[in-house]
Structures are given as C-alpha cells and as structure tokens.
Tungstate transport system substrate-binding protein (Acidovorax soli), 275 residues
Amino acid sequence: MKNMQSFGLLTLTCKALSAIVLAVCGVASAQSITMASTTSTEQSGLFGYLLPEFKKASGLDVKVVALGTGQALDTARRGDADVLFVHDQVAEEKFVADGWGVKRYPVMYNDFILVGPRNDPAGIKGKDIVEALKKLAAGNGEFVSRGDKSGTHAAELRYWKLAGADAAKGSGYKECGCGMGPALNIAASSGAYVLADRGTWLNFKNRADLAVLVEGDQRLFNQYGVMVVNPAKHPHVKVQAAQKFVDWVVSPVGQTAIANYKIGGEQLFFPNAAK
C-alpha cells in the first residue's frame, strides 16, 4: 500500500513539475518578438545600442530580421514578423491602408548622402542631388545601386526620375541587389558613387578613398516609421508585446535613447515621434 501511495505521489509530483516546466518555457518563448527592419538600422549599430535598453525596460527580447524595406514589408505580409521598423513612408502608408499594419508611427529621421571618390571625377560635389545624378547619367562615373527594393533604393529611384534619367541611368550604372554595407564596399573597391543613409556611412569602416560629396538637399530627408503587423491578417502575431516596443520607442525614454546613440560624438538618428 505504501509503495502504491509513494508511486502515486511521485506521479503527481512529476506531473506538477512538468506543468511548471511547460509554463516557464511557455513564458520564456512568449518573451520575444520578431522585428523586420532595414539594413540601415542594423548596420548603423543602432539596434545593438537600442534593443538592450528596451529589454531593460520591458524584459522582452527582439529578434531582428534585417532586409531592405520592400523585403521587410513582404516578410510582414507573410506573417513572419510581429513589428516593422522601416523607412519608405509611401510604402508604409500603403501597407497600413491595405490592412497589413495596425497603425504607422513616425519614429526618427536622418538623411541620405551621395558618396564617391574623393577626387570626384564626375564633378558632382554640392548640395543638389538631382544635378549630381544628371552628371552621372551622362556617363561621367560609375554608380552602384542597391537594386533591392529597400527604402534607400526607393529614394534613389525617385531622384533618378527627378533627374529625367529613370530609363537610362548612365553606362556606369550597376545594380548589386545587396544591402547598404555591401553596396558601400563595392563602391569603395571600385571607385564608384553610391547613395547611402548617413547612419550606415558613419559606422562604415572600409571607406578607402570614398567621401561625402552631396548632402544638405531637403529631398535627401530620410524618415523612419514603426508599426505592428495586423492580427486580423495573421492571428499568431504577438500584438501586445509588439505594441510594447512601439509604445517604448516613441516614448520620451525611447526617443532619448535614439538621440543618445552616437559614433565619434556624431548623432546618427534624430527622434521625431512627437512631431
């Protein structure tokens, strides 16, 4: 009888422990979200600084899938992300209007720059991005395009269109279908021009003879937005946890964290959620 009672007690104890283990594991697995974002936020080093601050405040881990903005939006449409942090406002607004996102929040901005060989063989140096591209379209230099449907690529295509060179961007125009870092590496090794976001440029170590040649044009403004993927499209989306990230990154604490991220004393991103 005692053996039977002992066996029964052991069985109940094992079941109780199993339930506890399952509960703990379930909580642990729930304490993370997947964020589809751009290569610029990743390669600039921003997330390496920002996400540990968010974890301190929330206890949540964030797994980042760094892609071009177009690919990041596609990832969210497939239901493979809980939250988006990207920089193509037109595409973002369409994403929400089509029902894929809950609400878009502005978060921060920086700017695009056109970099190229320091001796500037195409003579593009100045503030006017459109005039610079007109000179490049005339065949005065090699240009590396990301060609990856990223936010940077979308901006580049807008500038080519303004330059009247949308269909024929010059004999030196090459698409790499790659992220910002690799595109900069190609430009550095080949002496080519490339449009970059300033954040990735400031964190880029392999500059070789590259220098910033065009900056300061208002058209080079680069806005970032954040949004939760709509659970009406994908019920498995971790809405509450994803919204915690959104609420934090647009809060005064999150905005201050963004402003505090600097390289060599230079601020990379400028918070503007309140504007």
About this structure: Residues 13 and 84 are 44 Å apart (CA to CA).
